[in-house]
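Agenda item 2: uracil complex prediction
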Amino acid sequence: MTPAPPAAHDAVDVIRTKRDRGELSDGQIDWVLDAYTRGDVADEQMSALAMAVLLNGMTRREVARWTAAMIATGERLDFSSLSRPTADKHSTGGVGDKTTLPLAPLVAACGVAVPQLSGRGLGHTGGTLDKLESVPGWRASLSTQEVLRQLEDVGAVVCAAGTGLAPADAKLYALRDVTGTVESIPLIASSIMSKKIAEGTGALVLDVKVGSGAFMKTADDARELARTMVDLGTDAGVRTVALLTDMSTPLGRTAGNALEVRESVEVLAGGGPADVVELTLALAREMLAAAGRDGVDPADRLADGSAMDAWRRMIAAQGGDPDAPLPAARHAHDVSAEVDGVVTRLDAHAVGVAAWRLGAGRARQGEAVQAGAGVELHVGLGDAVRAGQRLLTLHTDTPGRVGRALEALAGQVTVGPAPGPGTALRPPLVLDRIG
Ligand code: URA
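Presented output:
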């Protein structure tokens, strides 16, 4: 039997309640999200409500109800038929953050199934699906039956979240994107958690990024977002923990779709940049612990090649050829150091915007991205360099984009005298844990 729709309210009353700093009732929240999804509340009314929420916030009860009401607008997946426990990871988005790629097969190789239902990238942080689509033949769309079969056979799936999970969020997120209402902690937390709870994972590890390349610029805001999401997950019966991780400088040495796949394969082969390896292992340990499998050390599964085997099976199961050469951009432009010194600044946001302008990301939903475009870093923060040494390479199919990418980087990648002893240029990668 289809559940009865929530009792009707007046959209203007709901907006006025939040505008005047009141608390929305459960009935108001259930109705407004259901009516908006059906088209009975207009975009301009939802925009006004989203702005009132951004300015005046929501209580813990309101956020929990808002999340539940978004879940109720769609379907919920059920993985209880699988023979192993499930754990997923969600990152709030960062520059060069490719950890899902090595992490999903690594955790699968440790005996925990990873159902990673993702969206596409928008803005300066890349999307996991865009990265994987640079692998020849790989397809993002799977039916629920295919997801279940792959989780049982391979143990890891990264695919497009169907339109059936929390449809209210897809509509509301697109509206927030064009009305200046993305940056609201209750709206971000309910948006992320409605999709993850509806996805049906048993355990969830959140990687909440902090710094110039992230949504959250300060550790205090990131901690508040993490706490809100951990509470929402826990209250919904999902074992949830969050790591706060640094995003003031890019993760690893690449930002861009095929470039990041190449670096992820290096990690799975036992190499790769130390920070990507450190974060992948930290997240894997949290996922295994949350899924009740903390007796397994994921570092062993990287070292013995079983994570690489799981990657190859995961790619092949979705039509991809793990042995095919990855696409490369047609044009490369090097940026070199002008003086001797150390790299004193390597700003994540600037590198993300440069990669985006080179064609790695999209400005509007639905736009195509270039598989080979992006930024390749030859040095990291604190490295000693000589005048003339290459600092980074810009890759693109459209050389006309290089000028705007260089503008984004101006003053954001600097070489200067080494700082005094005891002055760290990079904060620790894992800043805090909230569980
Ligand atoms: N990612 C989401 O899914 N939702 C937000 O609101 C922000 C980031």
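Discussion summary: The two ends are 38 Å apart (CA to CA).
Owner for follow-up: CH.
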